[in-house]
Design brief:
The chain is mostly helical and 74 residues long. 34% of the residues lie in helices and 8% in strands. The protein is built from three helices and two strands; from the N terminus they run αββαα. The longest helix is centred in the first third of the chain and has 12 residues.
Length: 74
């Protein structure tokens, strides 16, 4: 039986549509309770899911320019 902390983590992943992926099994460990659990299959994404996921947003020239510090003009 998983602890309440891991149960809350599972619920957060479901509510926020967070999927976990990895080549090996994903082990979750609650340091507070000392409980260990293998990530449930409904939270793991398959290779097919990963292929359809949108790519992470990259910084564009406009966002890099906005974040760059400006030098004083003479």
């Amino acid at each position: 039986m998983v602890c309440d902390h891991l149960r809350q983590l599972y619920q957060l992943c479901l509510d926020q549509q967070i999927r976990l992926s990895g080549a090996d099994l994903i082990h979750l460990v609650c340091e507070q309770c000392g409980k260990q659990e293998v990530c449930p299959s409904n939270l793991r994404s398959s290779a097919e899911d990963e292929a359809t996921m949108p790519a992470p947003r990259e910084a564009t020239a406009d966002t890099r320019r906005a974040a760059a510090p400006t030098s004083p003009s003479m």
